[in-house]
Amino acid sequence: MDKILGTINGMDFTIGDSLLELSYLIAALLFVYGLKLLSHPATARRGNLWAAGGMGLAMITTLLLHKNAEGQGISHTNIWIILAFIGIGSIIGWIVARKVKMTAMPQLVSLFNASGGAASMLVSLLEYPNAIAGDINSILVTILGLVIGSIAFSGSMIAYGKLDGKVGDIMKPFMTYLNLFLLLLTIALSVYIIISPNPPTDLIWAIYALMVLSLVYGVMFVMPIGGADMPVVISLLNALTGIAAAMAGFIYGNQAMILGGILVGAAGMILTMLMCKAMNRSLLNVIIGSFGGGGAVGIAHEQGTIKEIQLSDAAVLLSYSQKVVIIPGYGLAVAQAQHIVHELDSLLESKGVDVKYAIHPVAGRMPGHMNVLLAEADVPYEQLVEMDAINPDMPNVDVAIVIGANDVVNPAAYDDPSSPIYGMPIIDAHFAKNIIIMKRGMGKGYAGIENYLFFNDKTRMLFGDAKSSIQKLVNEIKSM
Amino acid sequence: MEQALTFFFEYKEAIFIIALSVFVGIEVISNVPAVLHTPLMSGANAISGVIIVGGIILVGHADLTTFSLNLVLGILALVFGTLNVVGGFAVTDRMLEMFKKKKK
Q1: Which of A86, A102, A136 to mutate to test the interface with B (most CBs of B within 10 A)?
Q2: ipTM of this predicted structure
Q3: Domain encompassing residue B27
Q4: What's the pTM value of the predicted model, to 2 decimals?
Q5: Which domains can be identified in chain A, with CATH numbers?
Q6: Do B98 and A375 touch (CB under 8 A)?
Q7: Residue % of chain A over a pLDDT of 90
Q8: Could you tell me if B39 and B15 lie in one domain?
Q9: Which of A134, A230, A407, A444 stands 20 to 30 A from A52 (CA)?
Q10: What is the interface size between A and B, counted as CB pairs within 8 Å?
């Protein structure tokens, strides 16, 4: 591989160098092709494998063919050390990915995103001393990689903590200003490092200070954002990790990293926008965070009374319905009730009842999360209907069963301008002829706000753990 | 203005790559159904693990004979990158496996 093919700009290049760049081109194309296939249900799994193949190719050729500025390849000792640590990382990653419960999926994606951000942060940090003093561009990309990687890392860790219930929402009015101040400080220090005429080796203190500052900003940035907005935040942080990787790619002039990173950055931003649109909010609104603290404001609204329903009544009601719509929420996933729900719908279908699932775009903890959970329980694809498709049909529905969902059926989104979810599209459960709500207790939803659907005249509550309630309901219907 | 034009000319390749990749990234996923949002986010997340290539370059050319903080941090970057790549692709595959199963 050492045969010199020619000289460009005074630098010799060999067959190996050309093959390396060629493999990066193929890897980048595989990333694009993989993402393309990933966005269609029938081809998604293949797309994921293609992208993984591209990644494997880029890794192997880098290991075998990469040369440093002095033209030295990676020595055998280093190759074995690298393979050993990649092996360790792979085993941990594989086991975690295989073992994790489907309900914990959003946390895990957040955690993996954090580790990607951390890798970008460390690579930029360690490459900084090699940047050339006065070469603003090489320093700029290093600083950007460090700052963005650090924010993605600490922000994703907080997002993980929030989704896992380990970190609560802390929202104080002064935090917006504090965050703005931190952001300005981070930018100021970055600019100082970039324009400083001193060689990078004299500014090591500043680069570590910048890293710490960015990490703190990442924490403070996610901290005030309410739990219900975490999907948007994870998607945004995912885009940031991509951009950080691309910046690190510029440090090495590595096309696979640049292309892969920018691709994820762009795709992540679009996905973030799509999610914001699903909640009828702007990204700025999410970041400044009007959620989370809500609920404290008392709204003058008819409270009415809560009416419970007996299991036997519910069983009769369901069995003699023509059209039943199940509206699942995260509570269903937490109770691991997706399998028993499927049993309920099969039972009703066998009695000639038409059963559909109404899926809100942000049901669960991430868009599409509910589809994954129901797919796990073998619910046929045709029975899952998206919000926009089912809403016009809601007045014809005999019974809407809301299982562990709250905010996505809260009519306050339509008629209460003071509600934090005002304007968010919801599933129109309140138009159904009867509404059964299965809930653990009278707690508030994830967004922490009151739900007036519970006080609706057509609403009957069925309190208790979703899984055991549905099990009892199934038994009741069977014994009829 | 002159400076901006000079900058553009000097880095035209990088700017072309960025502009086109952004467009491709947007175009490729803009019609994705909501069902696939989670797997897509997870798959894109795995691709952002491409930073592992940087980790390989970093540790590949590191001096392994002397122990230093930088070496430890470099190896950490490598392990974190691997976690992102392997975990990311594995978990995406697991999600999509479920979609496939029920089609039969």
Answers
A1: A86
A2: 0.91
A3: 1-31
A4: 0.82
A5: 105-293 (no CATH), 311-478 (3.40.50.1220)
A6: yes
A7: 35
A8: no
A9: A230
A10: 363
